[in-house]
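Hey, I'm writing a tutorial for new members on how sequence and structure tokens pair up, and I'd like a real worked example in the thread rather than a made-up one. If someone can provide the structure for the chain below, I'll link this post from the tutorial.
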Amino acid sequence: MNEESYRPLSLNELMKVFDIGKGEKKQTERVLKELEKEGRIIKSSTGLYGLPQNMDMVSGEIQGNEKGFGFLLRDGDEEDIFIPSSNMNGAMNGDRVLVKLAGEGENGRRQEGEVIRILKRAVAKVIGRFEYNNNYGFVVPDDKRMYYDVFIPRDAFNGAKHGYKVVAEITKYPQPRRNPEGRIIEVLGNEDDIDTEIMAIIKMHDLEVEFPEKVVRQAENMEDKVAEDDLIGRLDLTGENIVTIDGEDAKDFDDAVSVKKLSDGNYLLGVHIADVSHYVKEKSAVDKEARKRGTSVYIPGRVIPMLPFKLSNGLCSLRPGEVRLTLSCIMEIDTKGNVVKYDIKESFIKSRERMTYNQVYSILKGNDEPIAQRYAYLTDDFMLMKELALILNEKRLKRGSIEFEIPETQVILDENDYPVDITKRERNIAHLMIEEFMLVCNETIAEHVFWLHYPFIYRIHENPDMDKLLEFNKFIHNFGLGIKGLASGEVHPRSLQGLLNKVKDKPEELVISTLLLRSLKQARYSDEHFPHFALAVKYYTHFTSPIRRYPDLQIHRIIKDIINGRMDTKRVRFYEKTLNKVAQTSSETERVAQTVERDCDDLEKAVYMKDKIGMAYEGVISSVTSFGFFVELQNTVEGLVTMSSLKDDYYHYVDEQHMLIGEHTKRIFNIGDKVQVTVSAVNVSRRQIDFALEG
């Protein structure tokens, strides 16, 4: 069909061309229907098959808007197509559709189109606020990309009360001029309750909090402690000074470290990772559920774990004083940070201590005598760790690795899980130590398997899209900055790190760091090797967190097959067949987890700020739009100053400079400007905070 000479053919004509017998007609029809569903081919009203693009049609995914219109995100990198509300024809956000092109929009605007066929519905359930009168009700979706309210007949209320958050199952999809219809299948609770709102976010992204009974039963049937037989043939590291170093609120400890100085001045770094794969057997109920979840999701005060509690916080967690099975990567590193020798072993350890970042930082600073005395026997080890981490960090920065200084939000909860403070999560040298040790371990594992030419899952970060970097370059030109190497089309990560160094500790640092990060592609998992651009490294993977990331668990199985001589032709074929799907699913679940974590943080911020109305704060303009500008406070809370709230002048948005300028006063609002604002409104359900400009 891609051939120039192709003309649309009927089913019988296609069978004749391919010399397909009558007995295979049904199978041929099935193949054609599958291609139709994917939007790769189209069947005309006269029963002829051809390519959509040859009939002025394109396929893709609808991105909805609360005003009723949408955009078709086309397959590939081509420009989106605008779909007016009158041409949506019942399509909803996320639906896969076929769109007929309708020429350029008015005044040279982007291409427009009309949805002519819905190939696959994306939404089966809607989460939102239930509103009703005596005879019928509606669910108003939380997801504002969902334009339609869902009509609920009187007999489908299922006990829901007015103003409650609910889950509605769609029973009839929308038609032109008719809302979708549904029934309430779950009542989440009063929308004023923070737990209800968090559950609504979780449900919106189709995450399961509870494990299926079969999974729980399988986990509960596992032994409570490490069996003696499991230690046979493993490297005994219980005599080593091995510790875990994590945050104060960590519960699952899947990595532990040890460092020694060798007689020739080199360092011996041990990174010891929980051997989750010993307990989570391939294709078991626990494994299938872990693969489906892909990752643990961390939200303030709680976690949706990838593995059942007995494994994540018990049998696999590297708790102090308890023997645990591990997979160890033991690396000899010279004084320039090069790994000169390494070994990967199945092992068992007994962690000496469960350390926190702040405890280790206090020991290194020498400013807390009781802590220093308590851990005096480990002080030399921590000093060595710091020494090695700084060497590794210097090497990494020299090769051009990008370091984004974007603060993370820390939500402080009271005993009732209510937010009482929002702060920036502080980083110190102890964080750097663990970060550098995990990075060098991941690099070592990835390069090891690459040169063995076995199937593998890499953590890749592709080169940036030049158009996006050009757009970013235009923006930073306003600050007198530019990206080196952009003109040649060859941008090295080192030049981007150089740019970040120039804005360090300046008002525009956060904005430029954030916009640069958005201009780069997202890192993802792949069964095909590709370098990691941001880390400026050729080989990279994720090996160090198998309790909370499925790719790491899968990589452990591959490593163990290799070191135990099980990587035969059959296993190679198995991995070749399955790793692509594992990588793809893991990348998707990672994105979902990031969205849920961000939405929950935004919810907690809104709840925290709702009783701060009228209070004044200093902030920095973080972005400027055609409808106003966003201001970020010192505690990372962000709110909107709407254009309509600026009463001193009429303001116009200047796209190229990302700024607002007053028509008469010529007053300018730029990204990075410091401003005084007061909290004017908070909508918890929409996770939206409004500010009013002071003065």
